[in-house]
Amino acid sequence: MVRNKQEERRDDVKIILEDVNDPDGKEVKDKVKNLIKDQGWKVQGLAKTKTGAILTVKGSEEEVNRKLKEIPVIREGKLTMREVKDKKPMVRINGVDSEINEEELIEEIRRKNFQGWEREDFKKAVGRGIKKKTRNDKVATWILEVSGKLRQQILEMGIIYVAYNGCRVWDHIDILRCYKCHKLGHAAKRCGEKEDLCSWCGKPGHKRAECKVAAPTCACCHSQKIRSDHDVFDHGCPSLIREMEWIVRRTDYGA
Fold first, then answer.
1. Is the pLDDT of residue 74 over 70?
2. Which 8-state DSSP code applies to residue 184?
3. Quick one: which of 249, 250, 229, 254 has its CA closest to 239?
4. pLDDT band at 100 (very low <50, low <70, confident <90, very high)
5. Rounded CA gap, 197 and 204, in Å?
6. Which positions ≥6 away from 53 have C-beta within 8 Å?
7. Which end of the chain has less neighbouring CB within 10 Å, N or C?
8. Among residues of the chain, what percentage have pLDDT more than 90?
9. Backbone torsions φ then ψ of 106, nearest 5 degrees
10. Strands 90-97 and 165-172, bridge-based pairing
């Protein structure tokens, strides 16, 4: 049986540990190794970083943090800990001229809205861009990865100017959903289901339009054995909320 990718990822907690008296982190890895051995931890990895060590453990965030804080040298502040933030924030920009490419978009945003930023600094603050079609062929929606500082400035503006358009902007959380099994955290090409599942009842063998079941069952929540008496696309879906919370927790919103 293929385990739910969403469960696997959420249980993977990464913590950076550092020693104030060892800024180069030369001995931190060995210290951490000795501290956690024989403790029954489900360690997935332990590696040296430039300033300390990164520990990857299976378990909930609350459980891992609680166990670490029970270790005397951490409780006393001799070793500091912080969770890894490995995702960049994203913003959604609506109403962009569809003929503008990514490079032109970034420069237009800087030139018309952020003239105080140097060109190279602005480029560094912007990551990958994803262009999405809309019903109106003349305009497109763009999803941009940005630094925490730039995200804050963009959202405070509410509208940014690109070419001749005033474009509304929103925070964006990128949710990956499989359109074969409708679960979260993986794409259809990596799905472990042999057949497509109905998005209404969660059973194989038919599509939503052909389903004769009266009440919905969320395949995503059902697989995790939590409340599943709702449409899989319901915005109040517990699995969706948990996935969004996980993404927010792993996103670096710091300026």
1. yes
2. B
3. 229
4. very high
5. 4
6. 16, 17, 25, 28, 29, 31, 32, 46, 47
7. N
8. 51
9. -60, -45
10. antiparallel
Strand-pair category, 79-83 with 126-133: unpaired
Taking a C-beta distance cutoff of 8 angstroms, is the pair 185, 5 a contact? yes
Strands 139-146 and 165-172: unpaired
CA R_g for the chain: 23
Does the pTM surpass 0.70? The reply is no
CA distances (Å), origin 235, targets 117, 168, 243, 244: 37, 22, 12, 11
Tell whether the model's pLDDT for residue 4 goes beyond 60: no
Query: Which helix (H) or strand (E) element contains residue 248?
Result: helix 238-249
Task: Tell me the per-residue pLDDT of 46-66, one tens digit each, with 9 for 90 and over.
Answer: 888 878 888 888 877 788 888
φ and ψ at residue 160, rounded to 5 degrees: -120, 160
Dist. CA 130–CA 97, nearest whole Å: 14
Could you tell me the two tokens for 158?
């509410």
CA gap 98, 79 in Å, rounded: 51
Q: 169: part of which helix (H) or strand (E)?
A: strand 165-172
What is the residue whose two structure tokens read 């070419």?
Answer: 163
> Tokens standing for 116?
């105080």
User: What's the rounded Cα separation, in Å, for the pair 230 and 199?
Assistant: 11
Alpha-carbon span 238 to 241, nearest angstrom: 5
Alpha-carbon distances, residue 43 vs 3, 85, 87, 175 (angstroms): 19, 19, 22, 27
User: Nearest 5 degrees, angle CA 244-CA 63-CA 17?
Assistant: 90
Best CA proximity match to 215, nearest among 227, 204, 226, 201 = 201
Q: In whole angstroms, what is the distance from residue 71 CA to residue 44 CA? A: 19
